[in-house]
Each structure stands twice: as C-alpha cells, then as structure tokens.
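Let's study a protein:

___
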Amino acid sequence: MMNSADIRQTFLDFFRSKGHTILPSAPIVVKDDPTLMFTNAGMNQFKDYFLGNKKPPSARVADTQKCLRVSGKHNDLEEVGVDTYHHTMFEMMGNWSFGDYFKKEAIAWSWELLTEVYGLDKDMLYVSIFEGNIQEGLPKDEEAYTEWKKVIAEDRIILGNKKDNFWEMGDTGPCGPCTEIHADCRSNAERKAVDGKTLVNNDHPQVIEIWNNVFIQFNRLKDGSLEPLPSKHVDTGMGLERLVRVLQRKTSNYDTDIFSGTIAKTEKIVGKKYIADAATSPSTGGSRREAVAFRVIADHIRAISFTIADGQLPSNTGAGYVIRRILRRAVRYYYSYLDYKKPLLHQLLPGLAKQFENVFPELQKQVDFVSRVVKEEEESFLKTLEKGIVKFNERAQLHKDQLLPEEEARKSIDGITAFILYDTFGFPVDLTQLLAKEIGWEVDMNGFNNVMQQQKDRSRAATAIDTEDWIILHDNSINEFVGYDNLETITRINQYRKVKIKGKEAYQLVLQKTPFYAESGGQVGDIGELILPSPSGEGVRLSVFDTKKENDLIVHFTETIPAVLSGEVIAKVDALKRRNTELHHSATHLLHAALRNVLGNHVAQKGSLVNNEHLRFDFSHFAKMADEEMAKVEALVNKKIRENIP
C-alpha cells in the first residue's frame, strides 16, 4: 500500500513525464488579491495567466497547493471532524495547460494515472460531464463525452447540470464545462445492492468526487453572454486527502497516514484512545464526541500551523480572526471532550512539521516560532474558556427555567448573551452556536447581529462630527500642501463651515495652500495659528487646534472665526511641536526595524500614534515582550539615533 508521500510524488512524477513543469505551492495566505483572504483553490496562483495579465512560466505545469476553506459549499466549519471527508486545510494536486493540450489529453491522462499507475479498480469509478444548458445556449459537452467513451462504459458517464459541471471564476471572466471523476468506496455487497450511479453528487459519504477537470473555453461578458476564448486552457484539481483515502482503502480521510500520526500523538498526550467508528455512530454519547474531538484537532492543527508559517498571525480581525476561530474551536474540543486542560496543539507541531518537510518546508524552518505562537494563543483562550462555558450554561439554564410549555420547541440563546460571550470571553459566535447545538438549542443570530451593529454605531457616534454646509469664498480647486519645506506661508481661505464636535461648536477652514500637516499614518495633525488682516492692522489670530484630511481636502480646525474672512492670511505652524513630532515619527521606523531584528520578521505594524510628546507603536507578536527583549530594542534604537544617519 502506498503512503501519502508516495501518492503525492507519483502524481508529480507522472505529469513531469508528460512535459509539465513542477511548481511549488503558493502561500496559503493571500496578500495581493483583494477578493481572497486565503488560497482556496489550486487555480488561485494561476489566475493572472487565465485572465491574460501575465505569461505563464510554461504551457504545462503541475503542483500540489495548500488550500484553506472555512465557508461555502460543503466546507462549513461545523462539518469538519463530524463527517469523514471535510477539512479546513487540504492539498489540491493539479495539472494545468495554458493554451496547449485540451480535453483529449486531460481525460486520457487522468484515466491512465488513476487506473494504470495507481491501479484503481475501474468498476469503482464514475465520471460526469456537462449536460448543457438551453437557457444559456450551451450544448452538451460532446467532446468530453466522446473521449470518455474510449476508456469507460457509457453507463458510467453521468450527465451533470450547470451547478455541478460548469465552472466559473466569477460573474465575468474565463469559464467552461468540467468533468468530474467519482469513486465508489462502498463494499462489494453494498455496490450490488444499490447502483453507485444513483449516489454520485448526492452527498453519500462513501461515493465521493476525487478529481475535477475544468475546460476553460469561454469568456463571460458583463451582459452575461459567452464568447469563445482564443486560447483554451485546462485546470484540474484532485484532493490529496480523498485520493489517499481511496487508495489506502479507508472509509474516512482521518484513518489515512495523513492524519494517523497526529491522532496517535494526541492519544499519547491526553491518555485516551481514538475509536474511528464512534465518530460516525448515531450515538450522541461521550465516545462519539471524543472521536470527533480527535478529528477536529488533527484537521485544525494543519490549518493553524501552515497559515501562521505563511505569515498570518491570529488576531481579532480579517484573516487573523479566521485562524483564531479555528484554533479556539480545537481548544474547546480537547478541553471539553478529551478532558485536557493544558495547551495541547503546540505539542503536535514538531511531528507535523517533520511529516511535511519535503513538500512544504516552511513549517519545519519556523517550527519553534509557530509553536510559540500557538501555545500563547492556547494559554490565552484557556484562561477564559471555563468562565465562558459556565456563563453559557447559566444562561441556558435560566432560559430553560423560564420557558413556558408551549415554547419548549423554540429553545434559543438570546443575541445579548451570544454577544457577551463574544465580547467579554472571546467566544467566536460559531463556538456559541456549537455549544447550543449540542444541547439541541439555537442562537438568535439576528439578535446577535443587532447588538453587534449597535456597538459599531455607538463607536461611530463617539467620533462623529455634525457639519453644516460649506461656504465658498474663493475657487476651491486649489488645496496645496507646502509644509515639507515651509512652516509658514501667505495664503487665502477657500471655504469654511460650522461644525459640532461632541456637542461643542467649532469651525473648519480650507486654505488655498497650507504648511499644516494633516493627521496621517499615525502622526497627529499640526497645530498653530492663522493671522488674518484687521482694521487695526495688528491682525486677528485664530488658533488652529487640529488638522485633518477629508477626502483630498486639508481641513484646519479653529474654535472661532472673525466676521470677515477675505484677504490674505498668514498660516503658521507651531514649529517646536512639529519638530518634536517629526522626531517621534522617525523613531517609529527605527522602532519597527529594531523589533523585527530582535523578535523576528513576523512583526508587522498594526497602528501608531505620533505626537510632540511621545509615540505609541502597535505591532503583532505572539507573546508579551520580555524585559531583556525590550532592553535590546531600546539599545538598538538609541544606537541608530547616535549614528545620526542622513
């Protein structure tokens, strides 16, 4: 029986023999595509090639790609660990043709690899092709049908609809029909009793899709119509976890050698035995929950580890929050169902890194760092987890005691409780949903979302400025900043308006040109004064207490204005405060560099405040800094200041 490493290598070697260039996996963290947080499909790194934005390194390539999916079709987080084949992180092996070969070769090679190289029984395989779509004028994929008839019986070729057998990148862009290969992993007796053809694409846990060949031959236009592409492409994806399961004759992905090492290590740490059959048993007893917990841990540690190794630290927003959710879900499973009350996940890192060092070496290279990040996250959540569970149980019991008999079927945790668990105890709301589901309850998500929105509205109101209409005095198209070279200039007032800030009246003025630096990049706006002409000749002095940007306008804040605002104005920045602020701004860059030098290149700026008195620098790190680390950073910053580099 082939192990998973051999199965992966056999795939790559096969396509190398067919003239393909083997490329490494792209990072699982996506930094340059605003439409994605994570790589969620093998084609992501080749998107620009399909769109024609870049030229591919070769017309034929193959790879195995780390992917992460936590939402969408068949990838809901709540299913991971509960069934036999859903995962957060998975490997997608693929072969690609950019305007080179097409359906004939792709179909022939996929059949050759599966049946002749891997030796899969042809009687357990089915294929599906696109049946066509009358509404869109799309015909049946006769070419794919013809090629499949050369190698497989016609009664094993299934016609699939647009949902299952037509792939699109988005609302517009490259698209085309696809052909899927499905494996029937049931016993011979089960296959004789029920025709596997009827179970394809019907969510049967033992009749699963293992390979999808997409034939990109159309371009979807803005009006919804399709036009043929001048060059046709092949984009295939085969999930390694599912293929290994089929080749190793297992009924669950978790029983393959991809996960068995991690599960065995977990067994040793917690002193409990993983009983595979219990995970899919209809029983809701402790043995089933224990088995699911082993699976959740084995799955989640991969997603957490490789994502951190690729540069995404856990946090409270965006991609970082997704990783924190996954990590906390794993912690909750081992805490509640394996009765393990100490950090567990970080202990699994060395074995996992060793397992993948030849295909994804980035984890092995950073194993100590990733382990420390994970341990710090575990320790942090464990401190609040017990309190959160107690709080949940108290509220659930309170609700239960107050329910009327006719309300018994509508058991629900209210939105305020869900929000308190999220806001005070760090419970992602899907974790609260999981706790509720286990006692047969639901969470009032509308109520949760309403409370969340109210908090956002309060935060917004606290910083809101009530403004009147602008009064235009001069041409307002000129709004020039001259403050890099001059701290004083003669200018005019283009426009002004009255505002209310936290109930107090003030004024905003826009100048034709200004030396005042508007708040940006963490640096506070300049203060100073505007000197306006007056009948006495001495001039009227207006104190500028802040400078901000509104779109492209530089806006100066004053507490009062004189009756007459025409004529030339002297705009004068407080030079001492500007100078001191500049020094602190330079120091933030020195500090950032020193932190990366002492703590590691993972340190990233997350915010800052720079004024004339001090600086504050917010950054991402997995632990509280030690005194000696702070001393090293301080010494390094001071050393660079004394060097007085231009």
Q: What stands out?
A: The chain has a mean pLDDT of 87. DSSP finds 19 helices and 24 strands in the chain. The longest helix spans residues 367-402. The two ends are 65 Å apart (CA to CA).
